[in-house]
Design goal:
heterotrimer; A alpha+beta (about 725); B alpha+beta (about 150); C alpha+beta (about 270); A: about 725 residues; alpha+beta; B: alpha+beta; five-stranded mixed β-sheet
């Protein structure tokens, strides 16, 4: 029966209270371990069309009469449009329409960052639209530019009230601590740079707006577009069959969608508005930079008694104040914790969710600080983490937590450090580091699926969700095949169109599988029960293959429906893990080689071990880029973005990839849904930076406090370590590594 | 508009386009071959990789009018055994870079049927994959039995 | 725009030369180069290797696997750019590529664009020059140029012969060009004098597909002289006589890190040569 509940909904670490209707989830969980289909490696259902170049992405859609839009963007980091004249654009060949500030949502008079959208032009070709944009005559009034986050905090230029958190008595705990460590950690701005740029095609058919868009959230786009344009939601159809990467940046419609919708309305023709790569680097959002001033106190037995953190998120012109303090609050059992988190409002491009926003940054600071503490206490870093194991989330029980098992699986990798150290020489110093991971990933209701079963014994799963490249189609097919007892090849999955299935959750916050998987299983179970009824009526034995039972149905179909049940009440649903990383550092040139990464995660039941290992590898590799080579740079005088192309913004290539070993605890969360699975998209990127930094310290004695660990930062840290060692020698103390 | 003749996947095409038009644009917009992706449009990412006389090149910065050899796109490599190798190794996530990866890999194994890991990393370094499918791409190419 | 495809030097008559297009095409698209006439010079520029002479139209991909050329040049080609760019880009084009300075590439009115200041000096310059950076702090990105300068290579153009080193000049107020090529002059061939041994070492921030943070080429000729040339440290390929010369570098605040890096690489390269 459907039940109306008031519940806390979490996406990307942000919580809101919502009313939702949930259906009971009466199915017993499957037993632990690999089953017939679930828990066994499966190549992607849509692998062939993607690999063969047949998959149709938004960028590949060609509609009759399609016009191309280009957007005028502010060259100034903060400025107001004093006067704008669109007429010169409209006079150019091929130009069909032009719109200015306030004529579409997202086109604004006040540009808060260099790259903010101001006006747009639709033309027969993109080159013509571009020429139109260049012809627009704008007079700007330049305004004060704020780029320094500390300065912004001092002046109370914030995106929201500072977020404070406190438990216990932090002052007293620090006063009584035997050992105190502190440090300032900085992380840089990094960009999603999905290979398919942000884009949408809008077409009006009667009073219905068809939106083809590269998105992580079909239903969010539908709602948001309808709300903004004042349309009933059913008058907005959203289509995304294949999309080329999002990583958190494609959760909302943004200016390009509204530009396309408005220009389509004015021209009566379908309009594409696609960002160029350069625009992707200036205007499509980013992981914000942070400054973290951290302090930890411990007793000499290794018990952590106090944490204190002041976190400044360089949010930019818009975005939200991500929970950079989250790991400090949640990862360890510590009675006294105090944090304050500022969201600095700057004249820089907007923050957008990026694969575990806040926790990636916060884990770097916290887990480096823990290793500093371990060094000062002379306690093994793994042992220190075990001694401060959190049994609950500040009093709230975990639905499941197997971090201890992750630590156990990490032991053989951690043990290698003696042998790794032994392979150091005068130039290449080798070391091993670790870091733990905590993050959300439980998903939640609502999400719905239908299963259609024909007389040929083949099933089709139908739901209007998106597969952003994580293997959603495959995992859903595996779950349905398992429940129905039919081969994986006999299950198809139809998704990607709001007009072709029920509501589905966002593919963000590692929520796709834990949100939709249980709904698919419920729908398949509903279909299976109907099949069993038919078997009974036909007098067939219980173990008759499904195909035989339904063979008599001819045109009849069996339709199963399923919904995601509620999350366990009064429990924290979280994911856990640990990375053990081996690095080699060339102490003369500052070159860092990440040589081996053991990534061990606890995310409940693994549905597709092959796809899961790909998720882990992908997260690790993206994290290596963030740690070593990626950084968005601004001109300090003007706030204009300097790294707008992929020769300057350097993401890892295949040559940068270390040996990566994936291990899973693979134990269903007994309190979470009929599946017991949590999400895995984000966890693997959370601990990697700290693990690399800790390995560097282990190898060289150098403290790296800043991302990226470029050669500049590495050489600086090595020089500082060198000076420290010399200082110690002078004082007669033994030089520690 | 200037006349342009191209041989693509064995078929000959004659069309008109302004000088300066890229090969990638012609493939996608004029010939409907959208398997070739444009992701940066300035020669940095490799998503637009096609072969010209068997050599991997960046179609987004290739002048269509200057093309002299035979162009092979992913559409001409759909039956290549590497396609199955990529699928079976899970060397595809979002898939946007994947056609370009296959085009580069096909050129590699044509020249060097048994590449080592190091050779693969050297030959494939111009195809950026933001999802990080690299380990699986390496496996796919290593597993290739041409 | 028109595209001409001459087949001999005699047919050349103005226009913008394009060979592999890896540099010219993106610069045209960004409006940093303008031309009504494009001249595809592949029919004019020699291609391939003939003894010590290398056609300027030979691609980097061809050179990186060529056992007959000195190790420094082979390695500089192997570590340059990406595989596709090496397959497209010619040796001559590589030598004439423009800086990667973001201010220049984004069209800031900097001195190289005829403006009155170097934006990098006061701005974001962590990848910039440590030598000759007073007028313009850009860093020369060509690995191959450093190798050829160290090797003492000579160039033949459509008009003259000169040392590769003489192809380059520091820009100044009167002339913003970093090369000495005249309007309409085309690079045709490179000639390598015999060398006993040579090495190229390159520091990048990825393992592949990155421009040099610092590139170091060293070569020892038959008469025992050693030549050292660096990429990524000055607006043009930069020669030094000995490691100690690096002490006279004039780094900007955020390029100081390049000095110890260059010192380490030069020491290593010289050691490898011995």
């Amino acid at each position: 029966m459907a039940r109306l509940i008031r519940t806390e909904k979490e996406v990307e670490g942000r919580f809101e209270e919502v009313w939702i209707v949930v259906e009971e989830d009466p199915l017993e969980q499957w037993p632990e371990g690999p089953l017939e289909v679930v828990g066994r490696p499966a190549p992607r259902k849509d692998g062939p069309e993607r690999v063969r170049g047949e998959a149709r992405y938004t960028a590949d859609i060609r509609l009759p009469g399609l016009l191309q839009a280009a957007v005028l963007r502010s060259p100034h980091a903060h400025a107001k449009v004093k006067r704008i004249d669109l007429a010169p654009a409209l006079a150019l060949p091929g130009v069909r329409a032009a719109i200015g500030p306030c004529e579409a949502h997202g086109l604004e008079e006040e540009a808060g960052f260099a790259g903010a959208a101001v006006a747009a032009v639709a033309a027969d070709t993109f080159v013509q639209a571009r020429a139109g944009v260049e012809a627009i005559d704008v007079e700007w009034e330049e305004l004060e530019v704020v780029l320094d986050p500390d300065d912004a905090v001092k002046r109370e230029l914030l995106t929201a009230e500072p977020r404070t958190y406190e438990r216990g008595d932090v002052e007293r705990a620090f006063a009584e601590a035997d050992v105190v460590v502190e440090g300032t950690y900085r992380t840089q701005t990094v960009l999603h740079n999905s290979l398919e740029t942000h884009q949408a095609i809008c077409e009006w058919q009667g009073d219905t707006l068809h939106v083809y868009i590269s998105t992580q959230y079909i239903w969010g786009i539908r709602q948001s577009v309808a709300d903004t344009l004042g349309l009933p939601e059913d008058k907005v159809r959203v289509v995304c069959e294949f999309m080329g990467g999002g990583f958190g940046s494609k959760n909302s419609p943004d200016e390009y969608t509204f530009v396309a919708a408005e220009l389509a309305k004015r021209t009566g023709r379908p309009v594409r508005c696609a960002l160029t790569r350069r625009e992707e680097n200036t205007s499509a959002g980013n992981r914000n930079a942070t400054i973290q001033r951290l302090r930890a106190g411990a007793r000499s037995d290794g018990t952590i008694v106090a944490f204190e953190g002041e976190f400044t998120n360089s949010v930019g012109w818009s975005g939200w104040n991500a929970s950079t303090e989250g790991p400090m609050r949640m990862l360890y059992d510590c009675e006294n914790v105090r944090t304050v988190t500022y969201g600095a409002k700057l004249n820089t491009p907007p923050m957008k969710a990026f694969r575990a926003p806040g926790f990636v940054e916060g884990t770097f600071g916290l887990e480096c600080l823990i290793d500093e503490l371990a060094a000062k206490l002379d306690v093994d870093p793994l042992e220190l983490r075990r001694r401060n194991y959190a049994a609950s989330n500040d009093g709230t029980p975990f639905s499941s937590k197997n971090l201890e098992d992750c630590y156990r699986l990490a032991e053989p990798h951690w043990e290698r450090r003696h042998e790794v150290h032994a392979r150091s020489d005068a130039v290449w110093k080798r070391g091993v580091g670790m870091a733990s991971q905590i993050w959300y990933g439980g998903g939640g209701p609502p999400s719905y699926a239908w299963v259609r079963l024909g007389s040929d014994g083949r099933a089709t799963v139908i739901t209007a969700m998106q597969d952003i490249g994580t293997g959603t189609r495959t995992a859903m097919a595996q779950i349905a095949a398992e429940e129905l007892g039919i081969p994986l090849e006999h299950v198809d999955v139809v998704l990607g169109d709001s007009a072709r299935g029920p509501y589905a959750s966002i593919s963000a916050g590692s929520s796709t599988l834990p949100s939709m998987g249980p709904a698919v299983r419920a729908a398949a179970a509903d279909a299976r029960e109907q099949v069993e009824d038919i078997a009974e009526q036909r007098g067939l034995p219980k173990d008759t293959p499904l195909q035989e039972i339904v063979a008599v149905l001819e045109e009849s179909q069996i339709l199963g429906k399923g919904a995601r049940g509620p999350n366990p009440t009064g429990m924290s649903v979280l994911t856990f893990g640990v990375h053990v990383v081996e690095v080699a550092v060339d102490v003369e040139t500052g070159e860092v080689n990440v040589e081996r990464v053991a990534a061990i995660h606890d995310v409940g039941r693994i549905v597709n071990p092959l796809g899961a290992s790909s998720q882990v590898e992908g997260g690790v590799i993206q994290g290596i880029g963030h740690t070593l080579s990626e950084e968005r740079l601004l001109d300090p005088a003007t706030g204009r973005i300097l790294t707008t192309s992929l020769d300057a913004y350097r993401m890892p290539t295949i040559a940068d990839v270390p040996e990566i070993l994936c291990e899973f605890v693979d134990r269903p969360d007994e309190h979470l849904t009929n599946l017991g699975s949590k999400g895995l998209g984000e966890p693997p990127i959370v601990p990697i930076a700290a693990a690399i930094a800790n390995a560097i310290r282990d190898a060289t004695g150098a403290d790296v406090h800043e991302l990226p660990i470029s050669r500049e930062e590495m050489l600086r840290a090595l020089r500082e370590a060198d000076e420290r060692a010399k200082e110690r020698e002078k004082r007669g103390a033994p030089a520690a590594v | 508009m200037t006349e342009l003749r191209l041989t693509v996947n064995g078929g000959e095409h004659a069309l008109d386009a302004p000088v300066g038009t890229s090969l990638a644009h012609v493939l996608r917009e004029e010939l409907g071959l959208t398997g070739t992706k444009i992701a940066c449009n300035e020669g940095h990412c490799g998503a637009c990789t096609v072969q010209i006389d068997g050599v991997p090149q960046l179609s987004c910065i290739t002048l269509a009018h200057a093309v002299e050899g035979e162009v092979t796109t992913i559409e001409g490599l759909r039956e290549h055994p590497l396609v199955d190798a990529f699928v079976n190794a899970d060397a595809v996530q979002c898939g946007y870079c994947t056609p370009g990866q296959v085009v580069s890999a096909a050129a590699l194994v044509a020249a060097n049927p048994r590449p080592t890991r190091e050779e693969i990393r050297h030959a494939m370094a111009g195809n950026i994959c933001r999802c990080g499918t690299y380990p699986k791409i390496e496996e796919a190419i290593l597993s290739w039995q041409g | 725009m028109e595209l001409l495809r001459p087949s001999s030097v005699e047919e050349l008559d103005g226009g913008l030369f394009v060979h592999g297009g890896t540099e010219v095409v993106p610069l045209l698209r960004e409006g940093l180069l303008e031309a009504e006439r494009l001249v595809d010079v592949r029919g004019v520029v020699p291609h391939g290797i003939d003894g010590a002479v290398i056609g300027a139209g030979t691609t980097l991909a061809e050179l990186e696997v060529e056992p007959a050329i000195p190790a420094a040049l082979r390695e500089a080609c192997r570590l340059a750019a990406s595989p596709q760019l090496r397959s497209m880009g010619s040796l001559g084009g590589n030598l004439l590529q423009a800086t990667r300075c973001w201010y220049w590439r984004l069209g800031y009115p900097c001195r190289l664009h005829g403006g009155d200041r170097c934006h990098a000096r006061e701005g974001e310059h962590r990848e910039h020059a440590i030598f000759a950076n007073e007028f313009c702090a850009s860093a020369h990105p060509s690995d191959v140029a450093a190798a050829l300068v160290a090797l003492g290579a000579r160039a033949r153009t459509s008009r003259r012969e000169l040392a590769v080193e003489e192809l380059y000049r520091l820009p100044d107020d009167g002339n913003q060009s970093t090369t000495t090529l005249e309007e309409g002059e085309l690079l045709l061939e490179l000639e390598l004098p015999p060398v006993e041994a040579s090495v190229y070492l390159k520091a990048m921030d990825r393992k592949r597909w990155a421009f040099p943070q610092v590139g170091v080429a060293v070569a020892r000729t038959a008469d025992g002289t050693t030549r050292i040339a660096l990429a990524g440290v000055a607006p043009i390929p930069w020669r030094i006589e000995r490691t100690e010369d690096l002490e006279s570098a004039t780094p900007l605040p955020r390029t100081e890190w390049k000095v110890p890096l260059a010192q380490a690489l030069v020491r290593r390269a010289l050691a490898a040569l011995a």
